[in-house]
Amino acid sequence: MSDALINGLAGAGGGIIAQIITYPLQTVNARQQTERDLKKEKRKVGAIEQMCQVVKQEGWERLYGGLTPSLVGTAASQGVYYYFYQIFRNKAETAALQSQKKGIGDGSVGMLSSLVVAALSGCVNVLLTNPIWVVVTRMQTHTKISKKDHSNRLATTAPEETALPVIEPLSYGTSHVIQEVYDEAGLFGFWKGVFPTLIMVSNPSIQFMLYETMLKKLKKRRALSKQGNNGVTALEIFLLGALAKLGATVVTYPLLVVKSRLQAKQVTTGDKRHHYKGTLDAILKMIRYEGFAGFYKGMNTKIIQSVLAAAVLFMVKEELVKGVRLLLIKDGINTMKPKPL
């Protein structure tokens, strides 16, 4: 079994566990990001309070709306990302060693190379898995209410006050969402928000750059202080993953909001301020009608969710990789032996 495949499978497993643990926060955050009520006097609702409101008004199952396609998407995304990340990383390490033989560098992968490796892996991941996340976002932002409440709200709400998420009394399963997206924009509809998402590969790129840099420094310090022992504990991996994700999220959050706005269902009638033709149109309308604060809606919730998810993912992934390698070594298969150059 190749090292890339081990990392890909471990990444998928870690992503699934992290997704299940943090999914209610992700659902609430998607609703916060797509909220377009332009009334300044509207009271802000915190993540916990909003979760309680969802449970009270729609039931516990709505906190897990779209969980099935989300788990598929997470497994696919993390698997694809880590698989290609390890392949590109191996090539970068080989290039670094060859440069060292020529008297250039110390043989280790530099910060810039780590950034490029993470960016390339992210682009491949986005192009392959974006359709899954369009479906997930639709299901997360769908609000479930009764037909009676739906009729009453339509009767008492002016067209210009209509805001997302869109309210429908219909059954909103995965197949329904797929058909809805296809009816709206054909196959192209499944790649809505792909442009800001491609730009957002800078998030995991920054995350992995910070993570690899901190991990490298920690191992170096550990080796110097403990006579060659550079082992890192699961708790340390958890903390490094959390710090790396925190830095990446703060920098790239506005792009995540734009992506969610584009992928959520839009109302083509009524107030045109709620309908976006594309990425640039969304950015300009948000600046004009909501100000720059609109780009940071739900950021507190996202930081908690993404940092916790990333920390769990890194910790579980590293433990799974260690476990698989130990099993392979016990079976007499050492996949970690460097191949002769």
TrEMBL record:
Belongs to the mitochondrial carrier (TC 2.A.29) family. Pfam families: Mito_carr. The keyword Secreted does not apply. It is a multi-pass membrane protein. It comes from Gossypium laxum. Solcar repeats lie at residues 2-91, 109-217, 232-323. One of its GO terms (biological process) is transmembrane transport. Keywords: Membrane, Repeat, Transmembrane, Transmembrane helix, Transport. GO terms for cellular component: membrane. This is Peroxisomal nicotinamide adenine dinucleotide carrier-like. The chain crosses the membrane at residues 109-128, 190-211, 232-256. It is found in: Membrane.
